[in-house]
Specification:
The chain has helices at 34-63, 68-91, 102-130, 135-158; strands spanning 6-10, 16-21, 26-31. It is mainly α and 165 residues long. The chain folds into two domains: 1-32, no CATH class; 34-158, no CATH class.
């Protein structure tokens, strides 16, 4: 049986703590602000999703003349797909191996974003048809509601470690 000893060493002028595990040359870096950094990354990716969603919604509706609610179905799914790619490669990169293969992660992410998509779509329709806001402004409110839901559920489910059951 091998004994493991841990040594903690703060890195000067940094939020990083070095953890040395006294087993065959293993060094782990642990950040005190992983959650904050992940949140910032998630919302940075989300900003690109807003550009995809709004841009495609506008293009399909105003340029191609497709009814805005039909355009929304396409633009919402396109933003879900692009956000998955960026989140998988950047935001949750450290959790990918333990969360299953890419196709499985995408299916989970797409399923959880279905709730966000329904929120986005419903708010878009309500604010546009009932409150008479411009459809692109209504869509921003829908995106905000969906983004909140998507972050919370992504962290807890889409990139969660697979159980060994």
């Amino acid at each position: 049986m091998e004994i493991i000893s841990l040594q903690f060493h703060p890195v000067p002028n940094s939020t990083i703590i070095m953890v040395r595990v006294k087993t065959p040359e293993t060094i782990l870096r642990i950040s005190r602000n992983t959650g904050l950094r992940r949140l910032i990354k998630f919302f940075t990716v989300g900003a690109t999703g807003i550009v995809v969603n709004q841009g495609l919604l506008w293009l399909l509706t105003d340029i191609f003349g497709i009814y805005y609610l039909h355009s929304a179905l396409i633009s919402i799914e396109a933003s879900i797909f692009s956000n998955f790619i960026f989140n998988d490669l950047w935001t949750f990169r450290d959790m990918r191996v333990e969360a299953g293969n890419a196709f499985y992660r995408f299916l989970k992410y797409n399923l959880l974003c279905a709730v966000g998509a329904v929120l986005n779509y419903s708010i878009l329709q309500l604010l546009t048809d009932k409150v008479h806001l411009y459809y692109l402004i209504s869509n921003l409110f829908g995106i905000a509601a969906a983004a909140t839901w998507n972050y919370l559920i992504s962290l807890k489910w889409a990139w969660a470690r697979k159980s060994n059951k």
